[in-house]
TrEMBL record:
Keywords, ordered alphabetically: Monooxygenase, Oxidoreductase, Signal
Listed name of the protein: FAD-binding domain-containing protein
Organism: Marchantia polymorpha subsp. ruderalis
Lineage: Eukaryota, Viridiplantae, Streptophyta, Embryophyta, Marchantiophyta
Protein's UniProt keywords contain Signal: yes
Pfam families to which the protein is assigned, alphabetical: FAD_binding_3
Superkingdom, natural source: Eukaryota
GO molecular function: FAD binding; monooxygenase activity
Family: Belongs to the 3-hydroxybenzoate 6-hydroxylase family.
Length: 505
């Protein structure tokens, strides 16, 4: 439990080197705002996006007034390079082009999947709603299971060189009395690897494995349709651009539009809010190479060294409702400051050393997918990855690690079929869907117990009832907790990419 508790929150940020534009096929449809359309199996148009807007091409787009004539008047989908907002361009897109594999979302899951697929010769296009790769969320603790994936993707050593290994974990109560301490090397099943990785560096490294035209920024998917039950998917973007793809992966996070289109329930707020940030110490950080976690009553806090000059920190507190989403870092900082009375001075110092842009807040949520009970996570030619598939609370520090694992398992299943059948016809949907089902079954077996365990740990650690906290601090954590057993889930090894398909540089 100790390790679990300590690693719950860690950090990331990205900037891409391989972000560019794609060719988008344009397909105009008259029913983009309806719930079903002629010839389409099902469509979802997200009403809040259904408003006139200026497209990236410079023209005002009114989605509900688009022409039905397929392929006509291909306006323009622009290109994006690096993290800069794209300039509009004037080329005409090929209206009949059909993408082989589109991934919605350039987070960890989307980028890692695209990188894994690229390594076995499967071309993907990643659509990202933002103007740049995600930089919020500061940092993530990545465990051995994630480092194995990063090595398979060829970016493990680069990231190791940018981060400091964490060697142990210390638990304190809120008054800073030491409750438990242990080093990773004491835990069986090692060597264990643990670093708090900056999100931007992870994203950069993943994006560096992709061709320059693999990521399309400013591309928010607002509508999904299908030409027939087993026909291509038709995606409409918020700028009115439309593109078609044979295979679709929703890697679009906890509020996945692809998941909603597939009928999955929304995530469930678990009654906790997390605030996190990255403190910067240009002259050297004072926290060495150990994670520290402070257990309070209904609230806990912690810190994890990222490098010699950066430290990731977090605070999680109970709150009956998530309240309105707070995105202004100044507001988040003020909220945190108001809670720091009675906490170790470290937390105040960390906050003082944290640039505003490094602070963020998230209402914690999860969803438990139960095969046969909840909506299926695979439908013909479409499935999910990362938080879209298995949203879990961060108490085990495993959401991002599992998103990385998804990428390799997808390449081993779906990737093999796509690599062997490049350009195949509709009949291939059987093989594609079977491969997706194999992937989903493997991931369900792996991630469901983690989501459950993470939820239970969070609930126990966040208990606010003083007598229970007394037992936790004086008996449970110091005497009963055996941290080693909680590293067992980090020993998962998702294996290698299919050797016969790996494209050599
Ligand atoms: C407080 C906290 C602490 C955490 N700590 C850890 C940790 O220590 N270790 C760990 O492994 N995990 C941790 N996690 C979990 C981790 O952050 C997530 O599991 C991980 O980010 C999931 O990656 P993803 O790619 O699935 O989703 P995301 O990172 O959310 O990426 C989804 C992407 O899809 C894009 N998108 C969304 N909708 C659309 C659309 N309609 N069209 C186009 N693009 C779209 C988004 O802009 C985003 O870029 C933590 C989570 C929280 C909340």
């Amino acid at each position: 439990m100790a390790s679990t508790m300590a690693t719950a929150f860690a950090g990331l940020t990205l900037s891409s080197s391989a972000v560019e534009v794609c060719d988008l096929s344009r397909r105009h449809s008259s029913n983009l705002c309806s719930s079903s359309g002629t010839g389409s199996m099902r469509s979802t148009f997200f009403a809040k996006d259904c408003a006139p807007r200026r497209s990236l091409c410079g023209a005002v787009v009114e989605p509900w007034k688009l022409s039905t004539t397929r392929g006509r008047a291909a306006a323009r989908c622009h290109a994006v390079r690096g993290l800069e907002r794209a300039e509009a361009s004037r080329e005409v897109d090929d209206p009949d082009s059909l993408h082989q594999f589109v991934i919605v979302g350039a987070g960890i899951a989307g980028l890692a999947t695209a990188a894994a697929m690229n390594k076995i010769g499967v071309k993907t296009l990643v659509l990202e709603q933002s103007a740049g790769l995600r930089t919020t969320g500061a940092s993530l603790t990545l465990w051995s299971n994630a480092w194995r994936v990063l090595d398979v993707l060829g970016i493990g050593d680069e990231l190791r060189s940018q981060h400091q290994p964490i060697t142990g974990i210390r638990f304190f109560n809120q008054e800073e009395k030491l409750l438990k301490t242990f080093d990773l090397e004491e835990c069986p099943g090692g060597p264990h690897e643990l670093c708090s990785v900056e999100r931007k560096l992870l994203a950069n490294a993943l994006a560096s494995q992709l061709p320059r035209d693999a990521i399309r920024l400013n591309s928010r998917v607002v509508s999904i349709e299908r030409e027939s039950n087993t026909g291509p998917f038709v995606l409409t973007l918020s700028d009115g651009c439309v593109l078609r793809t044979r295979v679709l992966l929703g890697a679009d996070g906890v509020n996945s539009v692809v998941g909603q289109w597939m009928g999955l329930a929304k995530t469930r707020y678990v009654g906790q809010v997390g605030i996190r940030g990255v403190a910067v110490y240009p002259a050297g950080q004072p926290y060495g190479d150990k994670i520290r976690q402070f257990l309070g009553r209904g609230v806990r806090a912690g810190l994890a060294p990222i490098s010699s000059t950066k430290v990731y920190w977090f605070m999680v507190y109970n709150r009956s409702s998530p309240g309105t989403k707070v995105t202004d870092p100044a507001e988040v900082r003020a909220e945190l400051l108001s809670m720091l009375d009675g906490w170790p001075q470290h937390m105040k110092e960390l906050l003082d050393n944290t640039p505003l842009e490094n602070i963020s807040r998230a209402a914690l949520a999860d969803r438990w997918n139960l095969p046969g009970i909840t909506a299926p996570v695979v439908q013909s030619g479409v499935t999910l990855a990362g938080d879209a598939l298995h949203p879990m609370t961060p108490n085990l520090g495993q959401g991002g690690c599992c998103a990385l694992e998804d990428a390799i398992i997808l390449a081993q299943t779906l990737g093999v079929v796509l690599a062997q059948r490049a350009g195949g016809g509709d009949g291939d949907y059987d093989a594609i869907t079977k491969a997706m089902e194999q992937y989903a079954a493997e991931r369900q077996q792996r991630t469901f117990p983690l989501a459950l365990k993470s939820f239970v740990f969070g609930a126990l650690l966040q208990i606010g009832f003083a007598p229970v906290c007394f037992v936790r601090d004086n008996i449970a954590v110091p005497k009963i907790v055996r941290p080693s057993s909680f590293l067992s889930h980090t020993q998962y090894n998702c294996g290698q990419l299919p050797a016969s398909l790996v494209v050599r540089d």
